[in-house]
Amino acid sequence: MSEVWNWEYASAALPQLLEAFFRVTLVATVLGSVIAAVLGLVVAFVRRSAPAVIAKPVHWVMEFIRMTPLVVQLLFVYYAFTSWDPLWIGIGVLGIHYATYMAEVYRSGIDNVPPGQWEAATALSLPRGRTWTRIVIPQALRTTVPALGTWVISMFKDTPFLFVITVPELVNAAQNVGSRTFSYVEAFTLAGLIFLAASYPTSILVRKLENRLARY
Fold first, then answer.
1. 77: Cβ–Cβ under 8 A, 6 or more apart, which residues?
2. What's the pTM?
3. Alpha helix (H) ranges present in the chain?
4. pLDDT tens for residues 163-211?
5. Is 186 exposed, middle or buried (CB count within 10 Å of its CB: 0-12, 13-18, 19+)?
6. What is the C-alpha separation between 73 and 90, in angstroms, rounded?
7. Are the C-beta atoms of residues 159 and 29 closer than 8 Å to each other?
8. How far apart are CA 13 and CA 8, in angstroms?
9. What is the dihedral of CA 105, 108, 110, 116, to 10 degrees?
């Protein structure tokens, strides 16, 4: 066991990995999720309510982004905007990429709002903006939150792709630790355990939330 695993290397690597996790990986996930959630809602609204001359191009752009690999998008933006901070490039690309998936979740939630709710708002002569903000969106969010949480977890697990644009996230930190000590097993094992410790409890919470919302 000592030939495969060295506790001294592991204990030395852990603080560096945790620093990369909290300073980069977690920040990229949180900010990327905010961008994805807000932009996804805007896209869903545009596709649902905007004229076809606007909705169709937005749909095509979203399909293009969703159907192309995240790594290709990261590299394209990184080399197209070399003066930008790689971390902010990563956050922006993650947010836009996952906004395409969250937009579909929102759109499904909006479509599931009972027609009677729309008819009641029309009968009361509610302004269109109030219909959306007070009636449609709150009901849609109630059914979409678990699915949105699932996509946030997926984004978190995709943050290692930031490695390709030199962002010092968790996997990059493990790579650097391994290259200095020539012992990669400890570094990558700990990185995997950190990902597991963060994503598994979150997935359980999302599942419980989904079950709770299903009862109402």
1. 84, 89, 92, 93
2. 0.87
3. 7-20, 26-49, 52-67, 70-80, 86-111, 115-123, 128-130, 137-158, 170-181, 184-214
4. 999 998 999 999 998 888 788 899 999 999 999 999 999 888 888 877 7
5. buried
6. 10
7. yes
8. 9
9. -160
